[in-house]
C-alpha cells in the first residue's frame, strides 16, 4: 500500500476543493453557464478508512454547499436595480446543472496517491436522447498535492457513451460478488471495460476489490450486426472464460504497454474469472 500522506484530509478540505472544482469546470453556453454536477472524489486509503463513517454526512453537506454556491452565483448574475425610466441592463447568463448532484467518495489505489491526497473527477451527466445517438464524455481530473498545488487534465472516457440506456435496451447481464456484496450490472453499451478503475483509468463496471484485479482488467464488446459478444484480456494476472485462459491482449514493448487488440468470442452464457480471485456470471439477452 502506498505511504500515507503527511497531513490528514478533513471533510472541510474535501468540500472546499469540490466547490472550487465546480466553479472551474463551468462550461459557458449561449443562454446559460452549464455547471458540472457529477463528482468522484478519490482519497488515500488511510484518509478514506478514517473518514468512512462520515461519508454519508460529507456527501450530504457537499450537496448542500454546491446548491448554496449555485444560488450565490445566480444571485450575483442578476441585473442590478435601476432608477425609474432607466432601462434595466440584461443580466449575465444563469448557472445551471444538467441533472441532480452526484457526489461519491472512493479509495485512491494509484501509485501517486500519497503525493495527491485529494483527486476529483468532475463531469456532466450523460443525457438520454430519443434518437439513441452515441457520443463521448469529457472529464476533468484535478489533483491536489499535500502542499496545495493543483494540476488539471481533461480525459475522455474509454469507449462510446450510449444514450439508449433510458430506453431500457439491455444487451447482457453480469452478476458478481465483490467487497461491496452481491451486484448485478446491465450492459447497455456495445463496448464496456471492467476493472478496479482509478483516477486515470475510466471503467464502465467498477469492481470494489483490494486483491489482484487490474484497474482495466477486461473488455467486452458486442458486434452490432451479428449480436455476438467478444472478450479481451487487458490485465496482468489473467482472465478466464469457463476455466479457459483468454489470451492476453497487452504486450510490453520497450517498456511500454501495447494493445494487440486480441479478442476471442464470448459465449452467450458463461462464467468469467478475473485473476483467480473473482468471477462474473455473464448472460446475453435474447436478440
Give an account of the 3D structure:
The protein has 287 residues and is an alpha+beta fold. The chain folds into two domains: 11-156, hypothetical protein PF0899 fold (2-Layer Sandwich), CATH 3.30.2320; 170-284, Tumour Suppressor Smad4 (Sandwich). 15% of the residues lie in helices and 36% in strands. The protein contains three helices and 23 strands. Strand 11 (172-178) and strand 12 form a beta hairpin. Helix 1 packs parallel to helix 3. The longest helix is centred in the N-terminal third of the chain and has 23 residues, at 55-77. The chain is globular.
Write a concise keyword list for the protein shown above:
single chain, alpha+beta, Tumour Suppressor Smad4, 2 domains, 5-stranded mixed beta sheet, globular
Amino acid at each position: 500500500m502506498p505511504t500515507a500522506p503527511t497531513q490528514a484530509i478533513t471533510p472541510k478540505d474535501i468540500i472546499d476543493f469540490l466547490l472550487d472544482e465546480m466553479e472551474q469546470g463551468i462550461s459557458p453556453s449561449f443562454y446559460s453557464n452549464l455547471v458540472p454536477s457529477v463528482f468522484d472524489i478519490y482519497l488515500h486509503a488511510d484518509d478514506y478508512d478514517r473518514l468512512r463513517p462520515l461519508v454519508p454526512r460529507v456527501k450530504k453537506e457537499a450537496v448542500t454547499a454546491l446548491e448554496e454556491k449555485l444560488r450565490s452565483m445566480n444571485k450575483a448574475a442578476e441585473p442590478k436595480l435601476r432608477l425609474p425610466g432607466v432601462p434595466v441592463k440584461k443580466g449575465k447568463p444563469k448557472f445551471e446543472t444538467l441533472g441532480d448532484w452526484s457526489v461519491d467518495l472512493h479509495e485512491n489505489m494509484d501509485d501517486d496517491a500519497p503525493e495527491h491526497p485529494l483527486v476529483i473527477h468532475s463531469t456532466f451527466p450523460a443525457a438520454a436522447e430519443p434518437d439513441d445517438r452515441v457520443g463521448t464524455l469529457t472529464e476533468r481530473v484535478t489533483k491536489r498535492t499535500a502542499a496545495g498545488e493543483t494540476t488539471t487534465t481533461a480525459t475522455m472516457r474509454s469507449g462510446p457513451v450510449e444514450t439508449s440506456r433510458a430506453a431500457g435496451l439491455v444487451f447482457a447481464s453480469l452478476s458478481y460478488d465483490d467487497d461491496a456484496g452481491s451486484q448485478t450490472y446491465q450492459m447497455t453499451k456495445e463496448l464496456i471495460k471492467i476493472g478496479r478503475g482509478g483516477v486515470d483509468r475510466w471503467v464502465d463496471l467498477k469492481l470494489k476489490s483490494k486483491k489482484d484485479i487490474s484497474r482495466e482488467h477486461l473488455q467486452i464488446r458486442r458486434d452490432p450486426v451479428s449480436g455476438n459478444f467478444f472478450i479481451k484480456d487487458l490485465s496482468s494476472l489473467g482472465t478466464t472464460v469457463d476455466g479457459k485462459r483468454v489470451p492476453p491482449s497487452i504486450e510490453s514493448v520497450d517498456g511500454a504497454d501495447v494493445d494487440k487488440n486480441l479478442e476471442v468470442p464470448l459465449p452467450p452464457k458463461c462464467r468469467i474469472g478475473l485473476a483467480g480471485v473473482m468471477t462474473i456470471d455473464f448472460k446475453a439477452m435474447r436478440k
